Amino acid sequence: MVLSKYIWDLYKESKHGKETIDFFEYHNVFWNDVKVINKYNPIYGKWIEKRDYESIMQQIGDSSLDRNPNNFDFKTFAEVRKEFETCLDEGIYFIFDNDEKGYVIDPKDYQSFLNLHIVISFYFYAIAYEYTFPYLFTYRFFDLNKIADTFNIELPKLPKKSDYRARCMYYIELCEVFYKFRIENNLTPNELCAFLYDFAPNYVNKEKTEIFKPTQAWFIGGLISEEERLEEVKFWQANPETKKGDILVHYETSPISAITHIWRAQTDGVVDPFFYYYANSYIGDGIEIPYITLKELESDEYFSKHPLIRKKFQGVNGWAISNDDYSHLLQLIRSKGFDTSVLPTLQAPEPPQGIELHNERDVEVKLLEYYLNQIGYSENKDFIRQLPIKAGRGNRIYPDYALHYDNKRGYEKAKILIEAKYHLKNNKEIEDAFKQARSYANLLESEKIILCDKYGLIIYLKKGSFDRYNYEKVYWNDLQNPDVYNKFVNILKK
User: Fold this and answer.
1) Quick check: 316 and 238 in contact, CB under 8 A?
2) H or E element, residue 487
3) Which terminus of the chain is more solvent-facing, meaning fewer CB atoms within 10 Å of its CB: N or C?
């Protein structure tokens, strides 16, 4: 969806809307930045020491005056970008009376810059109010993606984990995206903040989605605080390839030094360039197990040879667990008298029996078209392959399959879009396929998007907008179950 001027105006004129917009006014944010953080990002706020934060902000402010005594007067976004890059590469510093520099952040110390990214964002909101915004999505990149999906905002391409400079620059890339969004929608800077942190979150789909059968297990690690033990769902470092429902085996580090819990991933793994460890998920459905200590694992015939155990769990977060690893771990848990039937087990989806699949066209013909024909749908009547759509100046794009379509030139529409791949190997490939299909769906006013590969289907239903995290998953073999098959048939209806 696009931002409705009518709905936005109603919000802007409401008592709550006026208070929120005023809350993000320049001077209010400048003097109450810790309060702003605690209100809109309490997960991060609980780690903030107010005195230390204000000390760092004061140092950055002093350095700003020393570096530019005439104050900043930015005329274009390019000038803001240049200043940001200057801070990155030359450091943030103040000048002593003897003309020596005292550095708050050293030149090209990108990791320190990244660790202070929230402080830096408030600093840039202070010096470049018209072009930037205070960044409050730390530990919440999942939410930023949902807002982007809901309002059809294309976020910048994510940088690689090892490229710390690009990860720092991602803030200014986001600023440019939302600066353009602000101008297009005639919002003031503080209205943009109110949109991001109050208005938009009320419009994203909050519907709880199904936790799927686990296809992979992963190790995660770290101590669980007393506060975290009370939380049903926790934010945790994870492998970016984690899928919703995956098994997470938790090793608590020293002084506990033992496997203590089995969790389930509540979301797909999310890459967050501002999160130091880069990727995370939300974990829940935890089951505490009899502790399996590091010493026990080192003395176990099977695990003593395991590379992670030999490394004493260094680099534990996001380490893939094989089926054999997990099966043997369950044996150790059973040996302590624990009923492992309450623990999740790994599932192995397979293509339908007796069908040879070698490429994308095999998936289309032997699986997708086979089931479309079984339902009674025929090509060029109920569905069409490679429906041409005009996109831009003379360009044409071709979705793999369009169902319940109108191919009248210039007025093309389709109720359902299907993108077929041979194998969607990882979360990035799934996300790329989703974005591609969503762009087609927006042009064709589609209500449903389906991605399929040799294992199964991922189904997205439009609920105001398409949400990359809100989907159903069906394996081809599941269609042998009449209930699953009939549900699939209903999804494919108009």
Assistant:
1) no
2) helix 482-492
3) C
- The CA-atom distances, in angstroms, between 450 and each of 199, 209, 479 are 29, 17, 15
- In angstroms, the Cα distances linking 171 to 58, 122, 236 are 21, 11, 22
Q: Which of 473, 465, 10, 416 lies closest to 207 in space, CA to CA?
A: 465
> Do 189 and 297 meet the contact criterion of CB atoms below 8 Å apart?
no
DSSP state of 379: B
135 φ/ψ sector (left φ>0, alpha ψ -120 to 50, else beta): beta
CATH architecture of 217-342: Roll (3.10)
Q: For 182-218, what is each residue's pLDDT tens digit?
A: 999 999 999 999 999 999 998 887 777 788 889 899 9
User: What's the rounded Cα separation, in Å, for the pair 429 and 441?
Assistant: 18
Which residue would you say has higher pLDDT here, 139 or 176?
A: 176
| DSSP assignment letter at 199 | I
Compute the Cα dihedral for 190, 194, 196, 200 and give only its sign.
negative
Query: CA–CA separation, 440 vs 418, rounded Å?
Result: 10
Q: What angle do CA 95, 34, 273 make, to 5 degrees?
A: 80
User: Once rounded to an integer, what is the mean pLDDT over residues 390-401?
Assistant: 74
Residue type, 148: A
* Topology, domain 360-492: tt1808, chain A (3.90.1570)
DSSP conformational letter for 263: E
Contact 419, 399 (CB under 8 A): yes
Asked which of 199-203, 396-400, 415-419 is least confident by mean pLDDT, the reply is 396-400
Residue boundaries of the structural domains of the chain: 5-202, 217-342, 360-492
